[in-house]
Design brief:
Strand order of the largest sheet of chain A: 1-2
Radius of gyration of chain B: 17 Å
Largest sheet of chain B: none
Order of helices and strands of chain B: HHHHHHH
Structural class of chain A: mainly alpha
Largest sheet of chain A: 2 strands, antiparallel
Number of domains of chain A: 2
Number of helices of chain B: 7
Oligomer: heterodimer
Strand content of chain A: under 5%
Helix content of chain B: over 70%
Number of strands of chain A: 2
Strand content of chain B: under 5%
Chain lengths: 476, 210
């Protein structure tokens, strides 16, 4: 099935990319969504089976794929709205936009299930290529700058991952490409050479941070989300982040079963803490709404990786948090385009009194704000609370206090900006040009936000089982 | 002989760190391509002929000819000035490159002996970090690209070290190199040359937080 999925998705992507016909583009996009759903159902039904030798439908992969499929349906809908309402649309930009999106979602889905680190690496490279086509959508100077930075930093980080893989192969006493599947690495983790494993982990971790949006390579993602169209930015800040997480998590599982666990958690913890710190600094001074949302992703990935570093209940909370963050952040980016249509600017100083112009949209932003800051009715409160508890249980009280302090700053900065957007009128705003936006266009955002709250507050037993299975290999 | 080639490769890094002109950089890159071919020829004894032809194409045709020719074409087309204009004096660059090499040698002594010749490790890692330093210390976008090509050369050296045992990794490394270089060089540098007439990183600072 995965062969059929990959081949037909690649074909659909290629045909959409090169064909400029409107009807064909949209019908093929719908066909791809059907294929994506069918693949998701197939993966769930064939739980823990290996397909095509290099792909295993394991728990973590299924969680991530379900998230990706749920998000990609509204992503296509909002892309349709975005492209059709945009003034600069041409058949060429539309075709390359949807073609790149199909390829991106396919590559990400395949990377979730890959059980061999070199295969993950190949699909990561495909996401760089397709994401750069999405970022370059506007084809102007700024988009070019964003794309250039994204491609350059991703190229360097993908090279880092490759060097990490080479070191990983050197850490084993016997050679062979089979050796690098996660299963083999885990089985032989006790016989690995730890010095080489250390180097390998450093390089692989650094490389994947470009996709995860963590210190040190986070800048690529921020510029990309700023320049990409809203729905594409939603994908970049949800499913691509999940892919970066999968890449790091799977190698972390290997290293966690060696005596290097403490060292690795220290590395992850330092990177996470620095990400939080940097996110705080930028959030306070940022004036571009989209970049503010992107830095908020950096903050949340810092929290997720703190959970991984702390261990214990933190593992569970980290996976829960990254899923909920994907729902919430994609809803926020889907909503962003409506906001832009009203105010025609990203500058927070020129946006205000949104409740007056689009009440439904304003409610979405308010709910998303509550979710992003992890206030009690939202699901992310639960996961963030559990991560803090794991820090407490790991006796990292000092870290916990500083983290809480930083998060307070972030909440202050977010609240200041979001409430300005929602309630405070802007001077000299011409109300006559405000378009009327149908409330139905916000429906998917409500579903995503409410879904995130539901998953956090009352997770279904099967979801809890899946998370528990995916962290079963980590030491408790 | 193999060690001599690798040491010459290492020396070319020192030369890069004190060179001033863009054309010198490009010539050194071409020379590194030839050296990589020599390394491949001397080291990869147990791989298939087909694989060897692939490696040969990568090192000689791609690294020693295609990339330098293309970079020269870009220099001409975009009227890039001949000086590299680094942020730091060349003397400091030389000291930093030396420090990088010394640190990698110390690191390699610290590593337990694996199935890897240590000199490969030293050359590959110092090339990687020199490339990163190159990117950080030069002003033009094209020197960033050259820095990236240097990093890739280091990766090729490292993948040759495991090439006898795992030809798959070697091929993957070559694919990465060609794919990423073509992407970076071909599409974007061309586009950037059209849009930004004076190619300087100072121009790429519009994406800001305010």
């Amino acid at each position: 099935m995965i062969a059929i999925y990959l081949i037909s998705a690649a074909l659909i992507g290629a045909v959409v990319f090169f064909n400029r016909g409107k009807v064909l583009n949209y019908s093929l996009s719908i066909l791809f969504l059907v294929l994506q759903c069918a693949f998701t159902v197939y993966a769930c039904l064939h739980y823990n089976e290996t397909s095509l030798y290099y792909f295993t439908f394991d728990s973590l992969g299924i969680i991530m794929l379900l998230t990706a499929t749920i998000i990609s349906i509204p992503a296509f809908y909002h892309s349709y709205v975005y492209i059709e309402e945009s003034e600069e649309k041409t058949p060429r930009t539309r075709a390359s936009y949807f073609g790149a999106m199909v390829i991106l979602i396919t590559a990400v889905s395949a990377a979730y299930f890959a059980n061999h680190i070199a295969v993950v690496w190949i699909f990561t490279e495909v996401t760089t290529l397709s994401a750069s086509a999405l970022i370059y959508h506007h084809r102007n100077k700024l988009a070019l700058e964003g794309t250039w930075k994204y491609v350059f930093i991703c190229a360097i980080s993908i090279t880092f991952v490759f060097i990490g893989i080479l070191f990983l192969s050197l850490s084993s006493s016997n050679a062979g490409s089979d050796y690098l599947s996660y299963k083999n690495l885990l089985a032989k983790s006790s016989s690995l050479n730890y010095e080489w494993l250390r180097l390998a982990f450093l390089f692989i971790f650094t490389g994947f941070t470009a996709k995860l949006g963590l210190f040190p390579m986070f800048t690529a993602g921020v510029d990309a989300k700023d320049k990409a169209p809203g729905p594409a930015a939603a994908l970049l800040s949800s499913i691509v982040i999940c892919m970066g997480f999968t890449g790091i998590y799977r190698i972390y599982v290997v290293i966690a079963n060696t005596p290097l666990l403490h060292w690795a958690s220290l590395v992850v913890g330092i990177a996470a803490f620095l990400s939080l710190f940097i996110a705080t600094v930028y959030m306070i001074k940022v004036k571009n709404l989209k970049r503010m949302m992107a830095y908020s992703s950096v903050e949340h990935m810092g929290i997720v990786m703190l959970g991984i570093a702390a261990g214990g209940i933190g593992y569970y909370a980290a996976i829960l948090h990254i899923v909920l963050h994907s729902f919430v952040k994609s809803a926020l980016f889907f909503q962003y385009n409506q906001l832009y249509k009203v105010f025609q600017t990203k500058n927070i100083y020129q946006i205000g009194n949104y409740f007056k112009y689009n009440t439904t949209g304003a409610v979405v932003i308010l709910l998303a704000f509550i979710s992003v800051t992890a206030m009690p009715p939202s699901g992310m409160f639960v996961s963030e609370f559990l991560i803090f508890r794991s820090l407490f249980e790991a006796n990292q009280i000092a870290v916990l206090i500083i983290v809480l302090f930083l998060i307070t700053f972030i909440i202050w900065a977010l609240a200041k900006n979001i409430f300005k957007i929602l309630f405070i009128p802007v001077v000299d705003f011409d109300e006559s040009k405000v378009p009327i936006i149908s409330p139905w266009k916000s429906l998917s955002q409500f579903i995503l936000l409410i879904g995130a709250a539901y998953l956090g507050l009352n997770p279904p037993a099967i979801f809890v089982d899946l998370i528990n299975n995916s962290i079963a290999l980590l030491p408790h | 002989m193999l060690h001599v080639t690798l040491i010459v490769f290492l020396m070319s890094l020192f030369y890069l760190s004190i060179a001033n002109r863009m054309t010198t950089y490009i010539h050194v890159l071409a020379m590194q391509g030839v050296l990589l071919f020599l390394v491949a020829f001397l080291e990869l004894k147990s791989i298939t002929t087909l694989n060897l032809i692939f490696v040969l194409l990568e090192t000689i045709v791609f690294k020693a000819i295609a990339v330098p020719v293309f970079l020269k074409y870009l220099l001409k087309r975009n009227h890039i000035t001949r000086e590299a204009e680094p942020f730091v004096p060349n003397f400091v660059s030389l000291i930093i490159t030396t420090a990088i090499v010394v640190i990698t040698i110390i690191l390699s002594n610290h590593m337990e002996e694996a199935r890897l010749d240590k000199i490969f490790f030293v050359v590959a890692l110092s090339t990687l970090f020199t490339g990163l330093y190159f990117i950080a210390s030069r002003r033009k976008i094209i020197t960033h690209v050259i820095g990236y090509v240097i990093i890739e050369n280091g990766v090729v050296v490292l993948s040759m070290a495991v090439g006898n045992e795992m030809p798959m990794m070697l091929n993957l490394g070559i694919m990465l190199d060609i794919f990423a270089s073509v992407l970076i060089l071909g599409i974007f540098l061309n586009k950037i040359g059209d849009v930004f007439h004076d190619i300087d990183v100072d121009q790429l600072t519009s994406l800001k937080d305010d």
